[in-house]
Amino acid sequence: MNAPLVPPPGIASCPVPRRILMGPGPSDMPPRVVAALGHPAIGHLDPDFVRMMEEIKLLLRYAFQTNNALTFAVSGPGSVGMETCFVNLVEPGDKVIVCRNGVFGGRMIENVQRFGGTAVIVEDAWGEPVDPQKVAEALAAHPDARAVAFVHAETSTGAQSDAATLIGLARAKGALAIVDTVTSLGGTPVLADAWGADAIYSGSQKCLSCVPGLAPVTFSARAVERVKARKGKVPSWFMDLGLVLEYWSAPGGKRTYHHTAPVNSLFALHESLVMLKDEGLENAWARHRLHHEALKAGFETLGLQFVVREDARLPQLNAVHVPAGIDEAGVRKQLLEKFNLEIGAGLGPLAGKVWRFGLMGYSARRENVELCLRALADVLSGMGQAKDQRAALAAAESVYARPVR
Ligand SMILES: *Cc1c(COP(=O)(O)O)cnc(C)c1O
Question: What percent of the chain is modeled with pLDDT above 90?
Answer without folding.
Answer: 93
